Amino acid sequence: MTKVLMQGNEACVKGAIAAGMRFFAGYPITPSTEIAEGSAVELPKVGGKFIQMEDELASMAAVIGASAAGVKSMTATSGPGFSLKQENIGYASEAEIPCVIVDVQRTGPSTGMATSPSQGDVMQARWGTHGDHPIIALSPSSVEETYRLVIRAFNLSEKYMTPVIFLMDEIIGHMREGVEISNDIEVIDRKMPSEDQKENYRPYDCADGELVPVLAPMGKGFYYNITGLLHGGDGFPTNDNEVTGRQVLCLMKKIEDNRADICQSESQDMDDAEIAIVCYGGTARSADEAIFQLREKGIKVGMFRPITIWPFPEEDFLKATKNVKKILVVEHNYGQILLEVQRLAKNLPVEFLGCINGKTISPDEIIAKVEEL
Amino acid sequence: MKKELMIQAEWCKGCGICAAFCPKHVLEVKNEKVEAVRKEDCILCGQCELRCPDYAIWVEEVSE
Amino acid sequence: MPSKLIQKYMREEHLPHIWCPGCSHGSFMRAVAVAVDRLGLDHDKVVFVSGIGCSSRSAGYMDFNTIHTTHGRAFAFATGIKMANPELEVILFTGDGDASAIGGNHLIHACRRNIGITTLVMNNNIYGMTGGQYSPTTPTGEFGTTAPYGNIDRDFDIAELAKAAGATFTARANTYDLNQATNLIQKAIEHKGFSLVDCLSICPSYYGRKNKKGDAVKMIQWQKEHTVSVQKAQNMTEEELQDKIVCGVLCDYDYPEYTEKYQQIIDRVRKD
């Protein structure tokens, strides 16, 4: 095991390649560009391919195309580009094509502040594309976690045949830290159908209770159709409401029924905590320091940190906050995960500390807010 | 091998393209479906198969 | 049971297709099946990609690996597929609106890269699926439901656009001469690099009706009278060519194909 100093964006590339990424399509955008640059350098070394597409829409589309042909694929962007990718993220969700979409969040709305941190895309990650659809989103809080978690993003995407949003932020993307590069990692590869399924291959049939389709890569002799239209078992579009209803329900349930496997969180100093700080991503680093200082002062405060942002780790949250008196949500936006916390916390008072002007939330601000409570 | 003119009437949408371009005026559209009304004149040239957008008419090799 | 060709290459269980009576998309789709058959392509290695619109329903009818994508983005999906597995023969169905309006940017960049994709534009001068709105190839002065007083836009020549953007093979086919269309599609598939065939399709239901062009037969006859071959056009004056559309191979030259160039990078980097 070796420890290497690297940037969050760089760790994202290294982790992705360790997970088996062999295709990256992107478009330059601050503060994610180092991920494209790193992929352009590293991919050919492992026989993989990089392409800079004409725009964000195209890079998302190319990623889905490459994945349908059987190659683990990723794209990276930031808010404005994430908006443009939504169309095809919905497609990947409906057609059940695995892929990883990195969003290194910057201050918005619109072009916003390109080099300033934000966590303003949390709800966009959940509901950015139209229609009812499931989504998985993960958010790392350190450079090392970026390396490990992006591998998990690929694994979940292949296991559940779904797009996974890797929700970084400018803080982590541009932070430099030591990372332990371990070879001891778990990599999940896509399931392949058996040869005897070639005749009358109906990968989207979920009638036998299997919620995740086993899609053969193109070029292997398994003929079926992939479409963004609601479809039957062979992937051919249909207007039969019974079939379409079943298809979308399978789509939702494959994530819903596997929350326990998908959801990850971390509780810190929560055993005796009276105040729980809920935060995630880069903001958790300020909270970490704040908690250290507040504990020195004798204030019983802890942190609940969702690592899986979507689906929100509800059970973990309820368990962690069972005995607290107050909750403080700290996030780099005007209140997004706050809404989830308010929904779940019911009778507990929920306070909020946010930031929308592009600066970083400091430990001092968190300390001051906690002392106010 | 012998060739024969084949029609799958349920796929015919009655556009009339085959009838209009048949060099021997073999085909007619009746009640929105193609019919080989002068089959004996058919020279099996395959123009109808080439043009039919609905694959409802074709020339097939059949064993004698 | 339909013809052997249809049985071999199309998903019979989903036919008859959804297109209106007289729409020539079905004829071009058959021409593609004939071209694939003549070339003896490995069935497993052919992928059909399409965008959105009437034209793009084609992919789903072909009994191969098929992918019906999002509006205009088929070129980008196809680029990803070809990059992931250059062994695949990637054939793309699109329409005039899909390729040159919403997909215009993706089209020109696929041409510029000269990536090995064969594009068949089923160009019927109208948005058919949504009921007859004017498209980038609706001739100036003609009508659509969104051009009730006549279209004031200039129309695109998609084959010229592709050529200018760097496509190394472009051709134009028409619904009257379907043997020529089949030959051109065959040549386009054989061509290494980005190839495009502008297939002049007819839409009697919307474009035809809205512009009083008559029925399908009349529209095909119009094409017969208004198209000339590249060879014939060479001996015609500009005046004679004024109301004619030139069909045949419009451009055909060699230039390194994109995925082959990328493979050279991989080979070079891995040797060092």
Describe this structure in words.
The complex is a heterotrimer of chains A (373), B (64) and C (272). By secondary structure, chain A is an alpha/beta fold. Chain A has helices at residues 8-19, 33-42, 56-68, 79-95, 122-127, 143-160, 170-174, 241-256, 259-262, 283-296, 314-320, 337-345, 363-372; strands spanning 2-7, 23-26, 49-52, 73-77, 99-107, 113-117, 136-138, 163-169, 176-181, 225-227, 265-268, 275-278, 301-306, 308-310, 326-330, 350-353. In chain A, the strands form three sheets. In chain A, strands 2, 3, 4, 5, 6, 7, 8 and 14 form an eight-stranded mixed sheet that branches. A five-stranded mixed sheet of chain A has the order 11-13-12-15-16, with helices on both faces. Chain A has a two-stranded antiparallel sheet with strand order 1-9. Chain A starts with a strand and ends with a helix. Chain B has one domain (2-62): Alpha-Beta Plaits (2-Layer Sandwich). Chain B contains two helices and four strands; from the N terminus they run E-H-E-E-H-E. In chain B, the strands form two sheets. Chain B has a two-stranded antiparallel sheet. Chain B is globular, with a radius of gyration of 11 Å. The mean pLDDT of chain B is 96. Chain C has a single domain, classed as Thiamin diphosphate (ThDP)-binding fold, Pyr/PP domains (Rossmann fold), CATH 3.40.50.970. Helices cover 42% and strands 18% of the residues of chain C. Chain C is built from 13 helices and ten strands. Chain C has helices at residues 4-9, 25-39, 58-61, 74-84, 96-102, 104-113, 158-165, 178-190, 204-210, 216-226, 230-234, 238-241, 258-271; strands spanning 46-50, 65-68, 89-95, 117-123, 126-127, 133-134, 169-174, 195-200, 227-229, 245-252. In chain C, the strands form two sheets. An eight-stranded mixed sheet of chain C has the order 2-1-3-4-8-7-10-9, with helices on both faces. The model of chain C has no long low-confidence stretch (mean pLDDT 98). Classes of the chains: A alpha/beta (373), B alpha+beta (64), C alpha/beta (272). Chains in contact: A-C, B-C. At the A-C interface, helix 3, helix 4 and strand 10 of A face strand 2, helix 4, helix 6 and helix 13 of C. Strand 10 of chain A pairs parallel with strand 2 of chain C, so a sheet runs across the interface.
